[in-house]
Amino acid sequence: MTSLDGAHVFVDQPIGHGPASDAQQSSQRRDATAIPAYLREVYGWAYLNRINALLLDRDAVVNAILLGNNRRLRRTLLCEIEPGQEVLHVAHVYGRLIPALAGRIGCSGRLDVIDLVPLQAALCRRKLRGFPQARVRFADAARPGDGLYNTVTCFFLLHEIPDERKRAVVDALLARVVPGGKVVFVDYHRPARWHPLRGLMRGLMNRLEPFAESLWHHEIVEFASAPGPYRWRKQTLFGGLYQKTVAYHARSQATEISV
Ligand SMILES: C[S@@+](CC[C@H](N)C(=O)[O-])C[C@H]1O[C@@H](n2cnc3c(N)ncnc32)[C@H](O)[C@@H]1O
Questions:
Q1: Which stretches of 60-219 are assigned E, i.e. beta strand?
Q2: Is residue 119 part of a domain?
Q3: Within a domain: residue 161?
Q4: Which atom of ligand 1 is nearest to the CA of 154?
Q5: Residue 54 belongs to what H/E stretch?
Q6: What is the CATH number of the domain that holds 231?
Q7: What pLDDT score was predicted for residue 9?
Q8: What residues have CB less than 8 Å from 44, skipping those under 6 apart?
Q9: Distance 92 CA to ligand 1 centre (A)
Q10: Distances, alpha carbon 132 to alpha carbons 81, 88, 107, 109, 126, in Å
Q11: How many angstroms separate the Cα of 257 from the Cα of each of 29, 172, 175, 237?
Q12: 86 in contact with ligand 1, CB cutoff 6 A
């Protein structure tokens, strides 16, 4: 059952687990609807309001928010994926990124998307109809489940969550990759001093995105409590306003990325 009324979203089983009992399902639903305060208070208008979500869920809107860089940022994420991989994608993204990811993985792979808002999970599931290799389940990015993946992708989520939770999310995602796998973060970054939009972005972040500016002052690796077993590579885009940071689990061959 899929509905845009958040109370009736089907709860998928975590990978590698058998069918859940009614009690387990209702407890998953309860957990899923425990929306964290940061999300309710700062982003409720965008992710919990059905009308706004339907208006925002378009590439044109995402492209405006990303200052014309939507396709470029999407490409930079997709080029990290190889067909046939098992991929965990953390959090629904408005627009066409999610189906593009499923298409890139192909039928021989597997895409698992998690989100902790029932409405967002339903929107995501609707986009993934016709992709049998994909499924959506309720989970907090800080507790993504027991599955292991070749690649974990996290697109513009970290800047929306408080720093303590950033740490929990980064640690949890690093723990979900197989040896030789990688975690790919695409998000904001400190723009160069000369960047004409630096002041505007700072103002917007201070007003609308209170947890985002911390990505100007901290590398994503700093949020990992045990970064050691991973090799970290960062690429910046659009005058430094955006970044792709990839953590390669040891035993993988890190390709050099220009910074
Ligand atoms: C990926 S982020 C931002 C993406 C970008 N602003 C866009 O274009 O949609 C938005 C999603 O993150 C989800 N989210 C927020 N905190 C989360 C968490 N701790 N765990 C899982 N999903 C989370 C929200 O429910 C929402 O669907």
A1: 86-90, 110-115, 134-138, 149-155, 177-188
A2: yes
A3: yes
A4: 1
A5: helix 50-56
A6: 3.40.50.150
A7: 33
A8: 35
A9: 6
A10: 18, 15, 7, 10, 12
A11: 41, 24, 23, 12
A12: no
Q: 3-state class of 165 per DSSP?
A: helix
Cα 15 to Cα 8: distance, rounded to the nearest angstrom: 21
Residue 144's SS3 state is coil
Q: What is the pLDDT of residues 142-169, one digit of tens each?
A: 999 999 999 999 999 999 999 999 999 9
**What gap in Å lies between CA 110 and CA 113, rounded to an integer?**
10
Mutate to test the pocket of ligand 1, among 59, 62, 97, 115 (most ligand atoms within 8 A of CB): 115
- Whole-prediction pTM value? 0.88
Separation of CA 13 from chain center = 19
CA dist 227 and 247 (Å) reads 9
Asked whether the predicted pLDDT for residue 252 surpasses 90, the reply is no
Identify whether 182 is part of a domain.
yes
Cα–Cα distance measured from residue 34 to residue 239, given in angstroms and rounded to the nearest whole number: 38
Cβ neighbours of residue 175 under 8 Å, at least 6 residues apart?
A: none
- Exposure on the CB side of residue 49, measured as CA atoms within 13 A: 11
Split at pLDDT 50, 70, 90, the class of 29 is: low
Tell me the two tokens of residue 43. Answer: 């982003």
What residue type is assigned to position 216 of the chain?
A: W
For residue 55, being part of any structural domain is answered with yes
Q: How many domains does the chain have?
A: 1
Domain that holds residue 68: 6-249
